[in-house]
Amino acid sequence: MDTSAAVGADEIRVRVRRLNLDAASFRQLWTKHGGDGAAVRAEVLEIVGRRGKMHNPVTGSGGMLLGVVEEVGPQSRLGLVAGDEVATLVSLTLTPLVIEDALRDWDGCSEQVPCDGYAILFGRSVAAKLPGDLAPELALAVFDVCGAPALTARVVADCLARRPGRAPSVAVVGGAGKSGALSLVAARAAGAARTVGVVPVESERTLLAEAGLADEVALADARDPVALARAVTAALGGPADVTVVCVDVPGCEHGAILATADGGTVVFFSMATSFAAAALGAEGLAADVSMLVGNGFVPGHAEQALGLLRSDKGVRSLFEARLRAD
Amino acid sequence: MDTSAAVGADEIRVRVRRLNLDAASFRQLWTKHGGDGAAVRAEVLEIVGRRGKMHNPVTGSGGMLLGVVEEVGPQSRLGLVAGDEVATLVSLTLTPLVIEDALRDWDGCSEQVPCDGYAILFGRSVAAKLPGDLAPELALAVFDVCGAPALTARVVADCLARRPGRAPSVAVVGGAGKSGALSLVAARAAGAARTVGVVPVESERTLLAEAGLADEVALADARDPVALARAVTAALGGPADVTVVCVDVPGCEHGAILATADGGTVVFFSMATSFAAAALGAEGLAADVSMLVGNGFVPGHAEQALGLLRSDKGVRSLFEARLRAD
């Protein structure tokens, strides 16, 4: 990748302040190095140095970044000027990046990476100005997952358009995570009849129940197809019309398909999703479900997600608790 | 996998006559062994012996089989009786299989594998009786890809339902292949305004043009995003409302996304599709497209595909030519 600091006619150079690694990417690095933060940091530096971008070769995923606009090409249409504090909403896997401080202020133990360096945004890149009323870390965490609630809301609205008066039930697998929590709130706001958040452990059940984001909270291992389908069916009184997969562990495809009603929709947001497992699983189970690849871009997604965070105290407190825990 | 020959209450045992390997799976084996048929055969035997099913560990895909019903469990609801000639429409990756003739009649040089052995179908399996008016090899080849035309037709119908009077344009990448050819015919039958089949080489352009399955035939390397988008846009007078990816080579995700109009739909049928490349590609390109995982099961798909083959001489002759070439 071309990592020259010069900006083209429709490009923007951003002085990078912080990277937010994709959860699946950070988990892979963390697991590979047995929790050795220095080794995680060394590998991130190695990847960015070699590829010219933060593109985890194992997970295929990147993340996003926060910074200050340094220079704007004369034909840029992103609506930004030098000095704007921005977050990129385009994946780091497509963003030329140069790290200049060797990540010396990062301990390698969290997804949020203090960083000094620069990145180049293109004409089709998407970047959002940071809101004045929210901490940058909080806004960044919201932007990182804002595609999930936006697409969930769209799918729920499509269901309502197809079958007026028959609001869909929605299951969110990984409902206590950041993308899952926002997706639950988005589903409810879009008119879902009933929602369930599925979580893997008791502590997450408590967290999600206290936040009040779902009508039901169910405990199940999403990698166990029968267990997941049973948990969803018990919570909703039947399979879900819409199942949203937000957990970043492999092997949730069959369970999500089994948990979904005939004619329903599964939305896969996890970067750990296997295309073949989803396609062949549905075929093998003779399951008539639509399966969507979770597109992280939906017009207006950033503003929509910030709006959900501002209007729902539960999801905001859950995000703040997750940021403190990082 | 349990490969016992005994049938459970809702199971069926089939005497296998022929396997039809998934195209991506066969290509991977063929390439790995440099076109050495004996080595391809040995690896298929090794995979089935070890895993109890034909499940290519690299591509994650399988294929389907043709045989004769041997024994039907008392509670089976598949509507089959002993002696029925059937093809399974469930992936081989989920079908217990025992090969008993060491594939001695197969030269390892084609996807169609003469075989003696048995397979077990479950309650949720899907199997179709072979039609009396078509050669078994032809019916098998149709069944193998029948999910693609069925889902393509559904997506085109959904477009028409959402925007009455504004029929969608459809691009099929890999339009001269079996799934691609049927998808083109299905799109036209479902009411597409205009169709283009994209092929990689001149010989396929001739084949597809002579079959008359598409309004336009375009030549492009689907792995080159800009070339693919340009070819589709030139042929249709703009990006496609629906893009269907039927080529079994990796790296077509970004091109398919770029070739698709904002608000449009991409359907990925290739097992070589990378979930992360699709999800992050759309996000990185800020492309507001819906992306569907090609589910090989749509109710009625087998009958629908046979109907297309019977009613369209072009697609039938293309299938027959492909079978002769195998």
Automatic annotation (TrEMBL), chains A, B:
Q: Which Pfam families match?
A: KDD_N (PF26370)
Report domain L-erythro-3,5-diaminohexanoate dehydrogenase N-terminal positions: 1-131
* TM annotation in the entry: none
SUPFAM superfamilies (alphabetical): NAD(P)-binding Rossmann-fold domains
Q: Which domain of life is it from?
A: Bacteria
Name of the protein this chain belongs to: L-erythro-3,5-diaminohexanoate dehydrogenase N-terminal domain-containing protein
Q: Which organism encodes this protein?
A: Pilimelia columellifera subsp. columellifera
**Upper taxonomic classification of the species?**
Bacteria, Bacillati, Actinomycetota, Actinomycetes, Micromonosporales
